[in-house]
Structures are given as C-alpha cells and as structure tokens.
Design a protein that fits this description.
single chain, 425 residues, alpha/beta, Aspartate Aminotransferase, domain 1, Aspartate Aminotransferase, domain 2, seven-stranded mixed sheet, four-stranded mixed sheet, 15 helices, binds ligand KE4
Length: 425
Amino acid sequence: MPVSESLFDRALKLIPGGVNSPVRAFRSVGGTPFYVKSAQGATLTTADDRELIDFVCTWGPAIHGHNHPRIKAAIAAALERGTSFGTPNPFEVEMAELITRLVPSIQKVRMTSSGTEATMSAIRLARGFTKRDKIVKFAGCYHGHSDSLLIKAGSGALTHGYPDSAGIPASFARETVVLPFNNAAALAAAFAANPGQIAAVILEPHIGNAGFILAEPGYLAAVRRLCTENGAVLIFDEVMTGFRLAIGGVQQLEAIVPDLTCLGKIIGGGLPVGAFGGRAEIMDLLAPLGPVYQAGTLSGNPLALAAGIASLRLLEELNPYARLDALGRQVRDAVLAAARAKGIPVQVPQLGSMFSVFFTAVPVRDCDSALTSDAKLFANYFYGCLKRGVYLPPSAYEAYFISTAHEGPAIDRACEVMTEAIQAI
Ligand code: KE4
C-alpha cells in the first residue's frame, strides 16, 4: 500500500476527515490526498517519493518557493535563542516597522497567529470603533472561519458546499449582510437599507477564494467612496494578496486607502502568522490602550516573525513582481491556447503570480458566475495534471500560486503538462 494511503487510513481514525483543514481533503475532486514529506523550491516530494511541481505554494506563503535558504537560515538563527518568550521580542518591532513602511495605510499593526484571527479582530475593532453591529461581506470571499464571516464564504466552505456553516447562531448571521462582488449598486442599496448600522465592509480586493476573481475597474473606488459616505470602516482582507501581487498589496496597485488591512501567509514565511492594522485612531482602541480586547499567546512569535521578516526583506531586495507576472501570463496563455484548440470554454483570470482556471464560457466576475464552472471537468483536469507531475489546488474554487522558484524548467514543464491535461480531457 502506498505510504500516503496508509497515513491517510490512520489519520481518518483520529482526525475529522483525516485532515486539519478541509480544503486539503480532495473531497471535491475525489480520491484521497497525498502526503508531503519535504518541499524545495517549486517542488513537493510526496511520502511515496513522487516529485510534483506545486501551484498551491502552501496556499500563498511560499512566494520564494519552499524552504528558501534565507528563510531557513533566519528561522535557525532565531531558534538558537529559543522558540517563544511570552514577552515582547525585538522581531516584533522590526516586523511592525517593515509592515507600516511597506503598506502606508497601516499606521499601527497588531500581530496574530492566523489570518482568521486577523479578520475576526478587525471586525470586532470596527464594531467597537463605530458602535455599530452589522457588517457587509461578499459572496465567495473567504476571511477565515470566525462566526461573523462564515456566511456565504469561499474556499473550503464553498468547495464542500456549506458556505453557511452550521453552528452559527441566527442572531450572529443576521448581523452579516452578504452582497454580490463587483456590484457597487448592491452596496449602495445595503447602506440605504441599513442607515447608520453598518460597522464595516470587508472584502478580498481581488478574490482568491472562489477561484481568482478580479475587481472590475472602478469597483474598489466605489466601495471606498460608499464606506466613507456612510461612516463604515473599509477592511481590505489582503491575507492572500498582501505582498503577493505587489509589495504594497492590491491597495498599492489600485491606489485605494482602506481603513484597516488584514495580512497573513507571506508575512510568516510559512510559519503561523496573521496581522491586522490601519488608522492609528482605530487601532488605539485595542487593549491595553482601549476597550476592544484582542490577544494571543503566540502573537508575534519570534520564529514566525524571523521567517516573515526574511521573506519580506527578500521581496524588497528582489522586487520579483514583473517576473512573477510574466510567469503567470506564460501559464495563462498556454491554458487558453490548449482550451481553444480543444474547443473547451475556459476563463483564466490572472494577475501577477495568481491565476485560476474556470471551465465555463461565462465571464467570471462574482461567486454566482464562478459557480457556472464545470466542477467535473475541473476534477478531470486536476487529475490529468497530477498524474503528469503538476499539483493544482484540489478545488475549482481556489487561486493557484506561482513562486520565483518556478522560473525556468518548472514553469515550462508545467505549461506542457497543463496543455496535455486539457488535450486529454
Ligand atoms: P488562516 O486562518 O487560514 O491563516 O487565514 C484565513 C484567510 C483569511 N483571508 C483570506 C483572504 C484567506 O485566503 C484566508 C485563508 N486562505 C485559505 C486558502 N484559500 C487557507 C487554506 C485552508 O483553509 O486550509
């Protein structure tokens, strides 16, 4: 029996669904997940010694590829001095200075240990600041698994068909207004229908959790204007897009200034991390200064911050974004050409090192249009790539990620494989 299969059999006895995060379970593509025993650059090595070119990149953090020597060295050096102190440590100051310099809308920042904590805390803070209860989110956006945000959520929730999780009191759900993305009129109507009641609008500025869905020109500016006009806090959830699409995130590319920003993934260099920050007058409401409580045993953990600082400094030194966009366009063009030749309708939205493939003729601009994608065709495509040595996200509703380590043979081989997989569908 393959090692991955025996590991999964054992896991199923003790871990719900055999996984510690649902989207890893392969349930939407069928079959069972493989186990990875090591990763290097653009390559995963499975427990059965298969080498796979990785387009999941641990769901975003590995922008420099896996196990980058600079990040590894930073962790090793920090490890020499201990793993966790429960007191402030110098890395926290360095990380705060880096984030606030690279993302100017963030005047003050608080570290957490996950993206979920970051968005959950930003929502609580916005409610404390405005003394309002309602929040607005958008169908298909995923902001982690806190109760207020697991309503019409994307990522694993959408993948497994429960975008509204069980276990959330109706009283909670009523405070969350869910709207279609890329529809400013719907947001204006929500503000009109809930005058003075909406504390915050939270969104992924480009959605990475319903597949990759780009904000249309003018949309983010309209959201910004409507939030300002209605006294609502605008929260950009850049856990995925932060430092991924530009050093200053989507807010830099689109010249939008949110009130709060949530970060994660890349700022941890592959270790557990999250952060939220923004206008000082809002952030100063946080304990111990103000009445909004938020905390975390491992928030600002020295190992995670050492890895994250190394990752951010590498981005500053390399400025790899044009190179990553060229790799993204190379893959997009290969998939579009193969699908055209095969006569299969696809949408392949791509920006920088993020893209995804929707098997639909419908232009994808929101969650509903993303759901017109043929999930069975995606599953065929997923396994067609996997058996040829390329690992895509095991879900039709996730973004694919490219790292600087993909440059050269890996991206060329991946384009061949994605082409062959479409030809074989
Ligand atoms: P975490 O709690 O998983 O660190 O972050 C939650 C989160 C918040 N905001 C955005 C925009 C996110 O993409 C995420 C997490 N992303 C998913 C991938 N689509 C994590 C993968 C998983 O759930 O295993």
